Amino acid sequence: MGIKNFKKSKWFPVVAILTSTYFIVLTVFVVWMVFFDTNSLLIHMELKREIKKLEKQKEFLQEEIAKDKKIIDKLSDPEELEKFAREQYYLKKKNEEIYLIEYEDSLKQKKDE
Asked: Taking the model in full, what pTM does it have?
């Protein structure tokens, strides 16, 4: 098969394009940018995943901050603060007794645990 016959074949345009200097340079450039460059596509994908993770964490923490602000606003009232202290820490006033009432169903749960 001579050069004249090869030029007439159906594969000649494909081979000509693949051996073109522009195509080779473009291919090397694309491979370099996707895999080897410091700002490669792979690094960008990894950073996007990390950004999504951090945004979810940010939303969660903002919700927690909103809950805490509600509790702080609620505890700024002296009556609510007293109620909280009595319920959570079993604090009492002088000359006052505290009785803890436990129901049977709550006692069963404690035994199961």
From this structure: 0.51
Per-residue pLDDT of the chain (113 residues; tens, 9 = 90+): 566 665 566 655 666 666 777 878 888 888 888 887 777 888 889 999 999 999 999 999 999 999 999 999 999 999 999 888 888 888 888 888 877 777 777 666 655 55
For the chain, first and last CA: distance in Å? 87
CA-CA distance, 92 to 1, in Å (whole number)?
105
Q: What DSSP string describes 18-62?
A: HT-HHHHHHHHHHHIIIIISTT-HHHHHHHHHHHHHHHHHHHHHH
Q: Could you identify the residue written with the tokens 């081979």?
A: 15
Q: How is the chain split among helix, strand and coil, in percent rounded to 5?
A: 75, 0, 25
Backbone dihedral angles phi then psi of residue 40, each to the nearest 5 degrees: -70, 165
DSSP structure class, residue 101: -
